């Protein structure tokens, strides 16, 4: 009779451990999803600022068509990115294209003094800071989630229930906010 109670106790313990593990994995997965949503919001905000920025520069430097087209292509790539890896790659391309746009703007003192252009610069810098913060949060939650999915005993629960490792949002080539300041 004692063995029956021990067996029941072990089964209850294992069931409780399984429920706890499943709930922990769900919580971590939701944190990763929230982190990605935060990045996505900031990337969208950034892509929403770009047409206004391009138009402001176009008014002064309409002959720089190649730069404008590159920024437009890069913006579209960010909007169409379907995974953190492709979004990070598209984001790097957009950062480089915006850098070239600001080089063009540098040649036009009246543009640099434009209140609209300065406001767009400030908005873009603020958005870059928010993307960096969102990326740090997302990558931290991905690390915790991936660690849980790959660790015993949660590994025994995660794989059969469809929990898989998530991809980090890389910052290759985008480790600093682009320099978009101009002398006033």
Describe the structure.
With 184 residues, the chain is mainly alpha-helical. It has a domain at 30-135: LemA-like domain (de novo design (two linked rop proteins)). The protein has helices spanning 2-58, 65-80, 84-106, 109-112, 115-150, 154-158. Helix 1 runs antiparallel to helix 2 (65-80), helix 1 packs parallel to helix 3 (84-106) and helix 2 runs antiparallel to helix 3 (84-106).
Which terms summarize this structure?
single chain; 184 residues; mainly alpha; de novo design (two linked rop proteins); 6 helices; rod-shaped; disordered C terminus
Q: In oligomeric terms, what are we looking at?
A: single chain
Quickly give the structural class. mainly alpha
Q: Sketch the topology as an H/E string, one letter per element.
A: HHHHHH
| Strand segment count | 0
Gross morphology: rod-shaped
**Residues in helix, %:** over 70%
Largest sheet descriptor: none
**Individual helix count:** 6
CATH superfamily of the domain at 30-135: LemA-like domain
Mean pLDDT figure: 87
């Amino acid at each position: 009779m004692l063995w029956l109670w021990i067996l029941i106790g072990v089964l209850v313990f294992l069931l409780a451990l399984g429920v706890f593990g499943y709930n922990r994995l769900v919580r971590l997965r939701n944190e990763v999803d929230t982190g990605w949503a935060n990045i996505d919001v900031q990337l969208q905000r950034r892509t929403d600022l770009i047409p206004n920025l391009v138009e402001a520069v176009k008014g002064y430097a309409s002959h720089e068509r190649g730069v404008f087209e590159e920024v437009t292509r890069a913006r579209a790539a960010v909007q169409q990115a379907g995974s953190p890896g492709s979004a990070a790659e598209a984001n790097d391309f957009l950062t480089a294209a915006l850098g070239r746009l600001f080089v063009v703007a540098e040649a036009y003192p009246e543009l640099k003094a434009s209140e609209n252009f300065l406001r767009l610069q400030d908005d873009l810098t603020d958005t870059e800071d928010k993307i960096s913060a969102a990326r740090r949060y997302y990558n931290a939650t991905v690390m915790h989630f991936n660690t849980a999915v790959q660790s015993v005993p949660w590994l025994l629960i995660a794989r059969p229930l469809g929990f898989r490792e998530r991809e980090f949002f890389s910052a290759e080539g985008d480790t600093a906010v682009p320099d978009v300041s101009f002398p006033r």
